[in-house]
Amino acid sequence: MGSQIDLYPEYTGTSFTAILHHQPITDPRAVYDQVKREYESQFNVEVSAPLGFDNTFAMLVRGEDARRFNLKTISDAARYTTKWQAGFGHDFVVRPDGYPGFSKTYGIQFAGVNEMSLDLTYQALASRQVDMIAGNSTDGRIAALDLVQLTDDRHYFPPYEGVFLTRKDTLTRVTILGGILQKLSGTLPTEEMRKLNFEVDGAKRDKKNVVREWLIKKRLVQ
């Protein structure tokens, strides 16, 4: 991390695969424990307790389809995908923890797979151009567009829990910081992060105001 910054937010899955170069695994606790241990030993960096949200891949279908076919899990949807069009961002198509392994794990075949900008996939699903997309689990448009995230019942996708990474010498120098980070532990579940993201991306509200309201609600500031 060098000495240019003191802390920054990160996802455990990103640290595990992109920084530490491990193959993806799906156990959130195992990923967190290994990231925490290796960041301390290799970089002298402290990994905070998870903030509460997991921004992993989210396999999404229209709410009307989920209700009509009683779709709750990805395995439920696999029975219908041979007649469905999929819409995936480039990242999901090429990543080792993306489409190749996903389709193999669930035995899924689509009538067609359309590669498009991730940002466009949400509207494509809502407007019936495609029938399933791979979004982000904290995206505010999931609820706004009446989309449903299917449960990853075979535990394919690795966890991407939000944490803070902080230099050890910073925690020693700024003694109050460790307690503040501890107070944030588990305060921001995925559903709540979706709502906050929608306030910014959907309702176009100022980020500072959205964050301050959340801090007041959680009694983290007065």
Task: Describe what you observe in this structure.
The two termini are 33 Å apart. The protein folds into three domains: 86 residues, Periplasmic binding protein-like II (D-Maltodextrin-Binding Protein, domain 2, 3-Layer(aba) Sandwich); 93 residues, Osmoprotection protein (prox), domain 2 (D-Maltodextrin-Binding Protein, domain 2, 3-Layer(aba) Sandwich), CATH 3.40.190.120; 34 residues. The longest helix has 16 residues. The chain has twelve helices and eight strands. The protein has 222 residues and is an alpha/beta fold. 44% of the residues lie in helices and 16% in strands. The protein has a five-stranded mixed sheet with strand order 5-4-6-3-7. A three-stranded antiparallel sheet has the order 1-8-2.
Q: Top keywords for this entry?
A:
alpha/beta; 3-stranded antiparallel β-sheet; D-Maltodextrin-Binding Protein, domain 2; 222 residues; 44% helix
